[in-house]
Structures are given as structure tokens and as C-alpha cells.
Amino acid sequence: MTNPSSWPAAPAYLPRRRAVLAATVALPLASLVPTLAPLTARAEDKPDVAAFKAYVGSRRVSTGRLKLDVPRIADNGNTVPVKIQMIGPFAAGAEVRSVHLFSEKNPVPQMAVFHFPVALPRIELESRVRLAGSQRLMAVATLADGSLHAASADIVVTVSACLDGS
Amino acid sequence: MADARIQVAAQIRRGEPFEVKVIIRHAMETGFRLTDDGKPIARNVIRLVTCHYNGAEVFRAETSSGLSANPYISFFVIARDSGELVLEWIDDTGVKGSERAPVVVAG
To answer: Which of A18, A119, A166, B1 is deepest in the core (most CB within 10 A)?
Structure first.
């Protein structure tokens, strides 16, 4: 017969099962936190697109209004659909004058600049781009009053646009 | 065969933006590719695309090898009067192209 009460009490120095389990879960998590934090922080507010940084310089950039849509995964880097949108209306003197599209890894980082000599109530652009590998894209709208609006998108490219003649 | 196609929205109302879809036949040779015997293929991409509406410039794109072969661009233009869109482009070798599309504005 098994009667727990008749069992000898566990010695105090032996860790309890629950405590051990908790420790095994907590330890790797705790060690992950410092490595995860800078990754997520960088992904959200400090994009590493050199051409974008060069264009913006020390100017202030707003996010949220400009939208950059690309597929999350592109099978073929030779033709990837890109959609850029900025919904107005824009205040007089603050219309969109140009939209730059920058790539993180392409050999030509400034992929395209679209100019709007005539003020539009909203911006809607579509095109198809080449991408040399998985990377981040940045779009920047420059308004007539000089303010900048940016949007970014990360994309996984399965087959990169060919660069080497292969 | 024309070198470009322009598609303009079917219903265009005065004062409202209408969509213009453009596709240009061009290899957009990047300059990064090699021939079979290892020689680089010279870059030849469209550098500039402009669109005029009844004589006034309404859209301009500085393009690069970052756009796909046979580049496609769609953008919006505000309808004023019936008339014509003129699309023009130039590539690295200086070859120019153009295409026209009628615009019929209702109301």
C-alpha cells in the first residue's frame, strides 16, 4: 500500500520539482530578453537603409500616414509589386511633391523617385521592382512644406533578381 | 507593336483624380549581368519617364535598374478638360520613346 504520509519528508536541500521546472523555463527566457530587445527596437524605429538615411539627413520624419505595401514573401525578385499610398487631404502648401523609394541591399539603392508637379488630394502609386535578396524597403514622401513622411516594409525574396549573369 | 501601353480609367469626372496605368516595353538591362563568355552587358535602363496632360507636366519618375523589365507604373492625375496624355521616356543610350492616350472628361 502507498501512503504518502508514511513517506519520509524530502530533505530541505533537495529542490522541489516545481521550482526546478520554473527555473529551467525562466533561465533561457531571461537570457533571451537582452538579445531580443535591441532586435525589436531596431526593427521598429531605426531602419538601416543607408540611402534613406542619406536623403533624410538630420530632418525629422513622420511615420504612419504614408503606406508602403509589398508582399511579405516574393518568389521572384525580378518583379515584385509595390504600392505606395498617402491618403489626404493635404493642407494647402503641404501637398506631396515627390516620393522616393529606397532599397537596403540593391546595388542601386535609390530605386525610383516619383514627382508630382500638380498637387493631388491623395497619392496612389504602383510599380514593380527588382530586389537583390531579402531586405527592407523605405518610401519617403516629401511635402511642399518640406516635411517628410516615411514608411518601411520588410520583404523575403526567395529568388533574388540576378546580378551575376547566372 | 507599340513600345508602351497607357490605360486610362473609363469613367473620368472633372476635378477628380483618375488612374493612369503605364507599361513600357524595355529590357531595363541592369549593367550587372554578364554574357556567356563573361563580358559585362552594358547598362541600359530608362532614366526618366514624364507624363504631360494637355501640355502641362503632371507626373515625372526618375527610374533606375531597380524597376523590373518592361516597367509598369500607375499613378493618378486630376481631370481638368478632355484632351490627351503624352507619355515620354528616355533610356541610357539616349533612345526616346513616347505614347499618347486620349482623355475624355464627363461633366
So the answer is: A119
